[in-house]
Fold START domain-containing protein.
Amino acid sequence: MNSPTGSSRSWSISEDSLRRYVYFASESCIQDLLSASDSNRLGNGNDGWKVVTLDNGVEISKRRSGSFHTFRSRWLLKSVSPQQFITVANAIDAARQWDPDLVEARYIKDLEENLCIIRLRFGENSKPLFRNREFIVYERRETMEDGTLVVAVASLPKEIAAGLHPKQNNAIRGLLLQSGWVVEKLEDDSCMVTYVVQLDPAGWLPKCFVNRLNTKLVMIIENLRKIAQNCPTGGDT
C-alpha cells in the first residue's frame, strides 16, 4: 500500500480489512496483557520481568522484548471497585494523562460492540513526542470468565491510520504504543490493576528516551485512580 503523500490522490482502507487487522492485533495484545498480569506470582520469577521499584503497594517492572523494553505497573487500589476503575481505563482518559494538551479525542468507528477506533490529536503545547501529532488507536474491552476485566489499547500502523483519514495526514504518527489494563476484583470493593505499556514498538525513537518515558507512562494509574474514586458508579451489587 502506498502512503497518501499527494494532495490530489489518496487511498482508503476497507471495513473488512480494518476489522480483520484490528481483531487479530487486539487479540494478541489481550493475551500479552493477561500473561503480564499473571507473571511473577506463586514464585514464578523466570519469565523475564525484573522489578524496578516496589513501594507502598505499587510494583513497577520491566521486561526486555528484543531490543525494546515493555514496562508494567501493578497497583493495589483499595476502596476502588473494578466497575469504578474500568470507567477510566480507556484510551481517551489515558491520553489526557500522557499529555494534557489533547485537543481532540473522539470515537470514529465501532467495529464491534467491544471494539472501536479512536482519534487522538495533540496540540502545539504538547511534549515533543506528541506535539501537533495525531494517533489513531483501537480500544478493545473484554470480560474473562472469572470476571477479570481487560482493556487493550494500541495505535494503528501509519498506513492503516492514514487510510481512515485519506485527506491530509502528514500529522499521523504510526505505532506509538501498545498498552492496556487488567483489572481483577478483590475483597472489600478493591481491585488489583496491572497496566502494561510498550512505547514506540516500531523503533523510531532513541531507546534511552523511550525507557524514560515508559517509566512515566506506567505511573498514570495514580491519576486515573483519583478520577475513578470520584466516579458515581460504585461496586455495590
Notes: The beta strands are 50-55, 58-65, 68-77, 102-112, 115-122, 134-143, 149-155, 177-185, 191-199.
